[in-house]
Write a structure and sequence with these properties.
The structure is a single chain. The protein has 333 residues and is of the alpha/beta class. The protein has two domains: 173 residues, Rossmann fold; 88 residues, no CATH class. Helix content is 42%, strand content 14%. The chain contains 14 helices and ten strands. The strands form two sheets. A seven-stranded parallel sheet has the order 3-2-1-7-8-9-10, with helices on both faces. The protein has a three-stranded antiparallel sheet with strand order 5-4-6. Helix 1 crosses helix 14, helix 5 crosses helix 6 and helix 8 runs parallel beside helix 10. The protein is globular, with a radius of gyration of 19 Å. The C terminus is likely disordered.
């Protein structure tokens, strides 16, 4: 496992949670991160400075950090008041480094050195992009931070998302990393606003379909208001196929652990529940299911436990190698 080259694709807190666990199994990690965020501190920096959104990158950098814990605390610190209220120090550092280096990619490399990260973090593109969603009632909504709210307000589903502009080139090493990967993991995270935008960047889905490395989708534990209310596990996969074509996913990881009634009640207030695993649809499409108890202990939210999720992925890959269902050449460097 420690020699395997793993590529993760996504954004938000879900992917950083997974990275926190995976770094204990391999140092050959590459996190490919969406650049469509336009809300919160990242959105303000985009508007004020014209910098690419640093928030998801920051989360991944901190998750992979091996520097002193105080550095993690510093990067996540948010100012409680004043003009910088709600802004994180890490976002500001990345934005400042972008100004110093004149390149967002170089800024990430420099900050990676400061945090002594295990692996590397790549923006999926360095172009200024936004997401536009088509809702089932025909409405068009632009902006990552507006899509879920608009879908909920309209009381309908998201039919499709696209990038604005629609033709977007990948950043350096993105396609090469996918081609060289021994396994590729999509998610967990917001389906339409964290995962799918990566697949809409030119060449990404083609690279996924061409590689013989296993492509694993980590399905969310719960539905997401405004995005995936009522979605089954295969509905998530079908949305990926609708945007990227079949062949982008070989396996899907799903949670089997029972969720506390108090937690279910909290989500029910927002109109969502646990993601139902419709195993027969996976069997029909030949997509493998990887089922395991994956929840974090306690808390008011149903989220993946980083160690359990990473252990699940590691066990699958070890078994795949052992049973020779894993076709990539091992120990490539």
């Amino acid at each position: 496992m420690k020699h395997l080259r793993l590529v993760t694709i996504g954004g938000g807190t879900g992917m950083s949670t997974m990275l926190r666990g995976l770094k204990n199994y391999t140092k050959n990690l590459t996190a490919i991160v969406t650049m469509a965020d336009d809300g919160g501190g990242s959105g303000r920096l985009r508007e004020d400075l014209g910098v690419l959104p640093p928030g998801d990158v920051r989360n991944c950098l901190v998750a992979l950090a091996t520097a002193e814990p105080m550095m993690e605390e510093l990067f996540h610190y948010r100012f409680p008041c004043g003009m910088l209220r709600g802004q994180s120090v890490g976002n500001l550092i990345i934005a400042a480094m972008d100004g110093i280096c004149g390149s967002f990619e170089e800024a990430i490399r420099r900050v990676s050195e400061v945090l002594a990260i295990s692996g590397r973090v790549l923006p999926v593109t360095t172009e200024n992009i936004h997401i536009c969603a088509s809702l089932s009632d025909g409405a068009q909504v632009q902006g990552e931070s507006r899509i879920g709210k608009a879908a909920a307000m309209h009381g309908c589903r998201i039919s499709r998302v696209r990038l604005v502009p629609e033709t977007v080139s990948p950043a350096s090493d993105v396609l090469e990393s996918i081609a060289a990967a021994d396994a590729i993991i999509l998610g967990p995270g917001s389906l339409y606003t964290s995962i799918l935008p990566n697949l809409l960047v030119e060449g990404v889905t083609n690279a996924l379909r061409k590689t013989d490395a296993p492509k694993i989708y980590v399905c969310n534990v719960m539905g997401q208001p405004g995005e995936t209310e009522g979605y089954t596990a295969f509905d998530h996969v079908q949305a990926i196929f609708d945007h990227g074509g079949e062949g982008c996913i070989d396996y899907c990881i799903v949670n089997t652990e029972k969720i506390a009634e108090s937690v279910l009640a909290r989500y029910a207030a927002d109109g969502v529940g646990p993601v139902f695993v419709d195993a027969e649809r996976f069997a029909e499409k030949g997509i493998g299911l990887i089922a395991a108890p994956l929840l974090s202990d306690g808390g008011e939210l149903a989220r993946h436990n980083s160690d359990r999720l990473a252990a699940c992925i590691a066990e699958f890959l070890r078994n795949a190698v052992k049973t020779k269902t894993y076709t990539r050449k091992q120990n490539k460097g």
